[in-house]
Design goal:
The chain is an alpha+beta fold. It has helices at 2-27, 64-74, 129-138; strands at 33-37, 45-49, 53-57, 77-85, 91-98, 104-110, 115-122, 146-152, 155-161, 165-170, 176-180.
Length: 185
């Protein structure tokens, strides 16, 4: 009888532990990107950033280490600031301004001053031919509004802004992501 009770207690405990782990694991959010298949395209997936909560803030509210790092990295004069609460609970400052050449610059930086991403508007002549070919393959008839270089952890991506979308192309042209422009309310 004692062995039977011990077996039931051990089995119940194991069952409850496994159930708890399964419930916990099913509620964990592992990323902020959702990929959707494109109809009639075979295996093509489009990534959509679900992001966090963003609001405009005065430049004076930007943490000093964040502003200092952003200015050092870009040598830009910033005129806009936003703060984003990411889905993982972290805060990112998004600073926008112009560099010394008069091009738009946007920097994503943590409150401690760690640069996450630097986007710089560039002349289209500064884009590698492989990236241009990838853009033309996906948007052959669209009017190009502007081109940007995005630097993240030492990797370059090129962004092509068109009417309602922008395309982000890896420097080697092998990865293309298409984003719908957000409507400003």
């Amino acid at each position: 009888m004692k062995k039977m009770m011990n077996f039931c207690t051990t089995t119940s405990r194991a069952f409850l532990t496994a159930t708890g782990i399964a419930i916990l694991a099913s509620s964990v959010y592992l990323g902020d990107v959702h990929a959707q298949p494109v109809p009639n395209s075979g295996s093509l997936l489009i990534a959509q950033n679900l992001g966090g909560i963003v609001r405009k803030i005065p430049l004076e509210e930007v943490a000093l280490p964040a502003m200092s790092s952003a200015k050092t990295a870009t040598n830009a004069a910033f005129n806009q600031a936003r703060i984003e609460l990411k889905s993982d609970g972290s805060l990112i400052y998004i600073l926008r301004g112009k560099n010394q050449q008069g091009f738009e610059v946007e920097v994503q930086v943590t409150s401690g001053g760690t640069i996450i991403q630097v986007d710089e508007q560039i002349e289209s002549s500064g884009v590698p031919e492989t990236a241009v070919k990838a853009f033309k393959r996906w948007a052959p008839n669209d009017q190009l509004i502007s081109t940007w270089r995005s630097t993240r952890l030492g990797e370059f991506y090129y962004q092509f802004v068109i009417q309602d979308f922008w395309l982000e192309v890896a420097a080697d042209g092998n990865k293309v992501m298409i984003y719908k422009k957000k409507v400003n309310i």
